[in-house]
Amino acid sequence: MKTKSKLKCSLIAIAITSALMVSTAQAKSDGEFYAGIHIKFGKGIKPTFTLGYRHANVDSDSDADGGDLSFRVDTGGDMSLLLKAFKGSGCTQGEVGAGYDFTQNSMLFTGGVQSHHGNVGVDYFLGDNSFETHAGYTSVSCYKNNTVIDPGYGGYGYGDA
Question: What is the 3 state secondary structure string of the chain?
Answer without folding.
Answer: CHHHHHHHHHHHHHHHHHHCCCCCCCCEEEEEEEEEEEEEECCCCEEEEEEEEEEEEECCCCCEEEEEEEEEEECCCCEEEEEEEEEECCCEEEEEEEEEECCCCEEEEEEEEEECCEEEEEEEECCCCEEEEEEEEECCCCEECCEECCHHHCCCCCCCC
